[in-house]
Write a structure and sequence with these properties.
One of its GO terms (cellular component) is cytosol. InterPro entries: Aminoacid_DH-like_N_sf, NAD(P)-bd_dom_sf, THF_DH/CycHdrlase, THF_DH/CycHdrlase_cat_dom, THF_DH/CycHdrlase_NAD-bd_dom. By secondary structure, the protein is of the alpha/beta class. It folds into 2 domains: 87 residues, Leucine Dehydrogenase, chain A, domain 1 (Rossmann fold, 3-Layer(aba) Sandwich); 124 residues, 3-Layer(aba) Sandwich (Rossmann fold). The chain is built from 10 helices and 11 strands. The strands form 3 sheets. It has a 6-stranded parallel beta sheet with strand order 1-11-8-7-5-6. α7 links the parallel β5 and β6. α6 crosses α7 and α6 crosses α10. It starts with a strand and ends with a helix. Bound molecules: NADPH dihydro-nicotinamide-adenine-dinucleotide phosphate and 5,10-Methenyltetrahydrofolate.
């Protein structure tokens, strides 16, 4: 069996980064300084990984950043008031609220608070509706967008392909399925209630794993020669980052697979930066 190709995020991210550096220079020449504000509650491992990646990426492009660190036990009223403050702060162009939120915070209420024009990761229903409609005037969620960009970069044609998305969250699975559908794939979405999961995923020409369970996807989940996009960012028993796919056991069966770290996450941060600049330009009629 042929050894699968490890398809890294870096070349995809670097290409996006080069374009963005030029755009930031142009904005700065006009006295406009694009800025991202991150809102983090508590200290989840995957949030911290994103934060590290996002701060590094924005820094290298010239985007200003600020992190609002909020206590794990924050009340809904307090959280909402923090978001409203940032909505009204003219220096911030993009807001990223890490999700999932802790249990006492009701996402179904909070998602209406973030200003749609600053909502660079598609939290607001206004932007979610645009993803459904294929309307590119809003902000698609960064990670699902990164998944599509990686597939395009490595020449994987999605038209007519059987794509299985493992996971149905509003951060990854569900919008990823929608964006892949927009690329003319035939899409199946799986979740915790799916029966015979391995039989379903084994049909996939392209498998997108976004479950948040370390190394859950094994050899029996994979069709020979499939392309696997591993979105998972999990922390294993030794404190190291790992994906949702057990890469060691599937790598000889796949044709291509993204690594963790160095895969989807690194492209996600580039898309995030791209969206901050898009938001900044829109807010400045630039
Ligand atoms: N690389 C990147 O840029 C990013 C990585 N991530 C990572 O991706 C992973 C998923 O994130 P997110 O979508 O936010 O996570 P959520 O926990 O919100 O959603 C997980 C999804 O997986 C499903 N699921 C959980 N367990 C199983 C199982 N045993 N079998 C089948 N389906 C299952 C759930 O089903 P149900 O709906 O039925 O509960 C749910 O739809 C995490 O590791 C996260 O850190 C997230 C964003 C960006
Ligand atoms: N609203 C929301 N949207 C998200 O997209 C979201 C979220 N909440 N909550 C947390 C998860 C996790 N996530 C990561 C993104 C990039 C890296 C990343 O840049 N990873 C680098 C490594 C970074 C490092 O370890 O320093 C890599 O994979 O190479 C990691 C994790 C996005 N998430």
């Amino acid at each position: 069996m042929a050894m699968g190709q490890i398809i890294k995020g870096k070349p995809v991210a670097d290409k996006i980064k080069e374009e963005l550096i030029k755009e930031v220079e142009e904005l700065k020449a006009r006295g406009i300084n694009p800025k991202l504000t991150i809102v983090r509650v508590g200290a989840r491992g995957d949030d911290l990984a994103y934060e590290r990646g996002a701060l590094k990426r924005c820094d290298s492009i010239g985007i200003l950043t600020e992190v609002k660190e909020l206590p794990e036990d924050i009340t809904q009223e307090e959280y909402i008031s923090e978001i409203k403050k940032i909505n009204e702060d003219p220096a911030t162009h993009g807001i990223l609220c890490f999700r999932p939120l802790p249990k006492q915070l009701d996402e179904e209420v909070i998602k209406y608070v973030i200003a749609p024009e600053k909502d660079i990761d598609c939290f607001s229903p206004v932007n979610a509706a645009k993803v459904m409609e294929g309307d590119k005037s809003g902000f698609s969620p960064c990670t699902p967008t990164a998944v599509v960009e990686i597939l395009k970069h490595y020449g994987v044609d999605l038209t007519g392909k059987k794509v299985v998305v493992l996971g149905r969250s509003m951060v990854v699975g569900k919008p990823a399925a929608m964006l892949l559908l927009n690329e003319n794939a035939t899409v199946t979405i799986c979740h915790s209630k799916t029966k015979d999961l391995d039989l379903v995923t084994r049909e996939a020409d392209v498998l997108v794993a976004a479950v948040g369970r370390a190394k859950m996807v094994k050899e029996n989940f994979i069709k020979d020669g499939a392309v696997v996009i591993d979105v998972g960012i999990n922390v294993d028993e030794n404190g190291n980052l790992c994906g949702d796919v057990d890469t060691d056991v599937v790598k000889d069966k796949v044709s291509m697979i993204t690594p963790v770290p160095g895969g989807v996450g690194s492209v996600t941060t580039s898309i995030l930066a791209k969206h901050v600049i898009k938001a900044c330009k829109m807010q400045n009629n630039a």
